[in-house]
Fold this protein.
Amino acid sequence: MIVELHAKSDVGRVRRGNEDNFLLLDLSSSRTWTGSDGPESPADMSAVDMGTNGLVLVVSDGMGGALAGDVASRMAVDSVRETLLGKDHNDDIIAG
């Protein structure tokens, strides 16, 4: 089954910056696209063959107005991706 993927988030009427994030993760190929990667989906992620392992779609609300909501939503998306792909996210914390 081929799945067409589209994602978009909007800052809304009140906030200056968008604090939301999302993750599209193809578990068969480990390809990913997050809101942090930019508004346009990579060409190889616009239509994905479902594959045997499936897809993971995540939306993380940045809690507009909360301190560092954009950081929290990015960390949530990154944590899901790293956990499902088997990457030890503690390496990033130590190195970063």
Summary: The chain is about 25% helix and 25% strand. The CA atoms of residues 8 and 27 lie 21 Å apart. The longest strand covers residues 21-26. Confidence is low (pLDDT under 50) at residues 89-96.
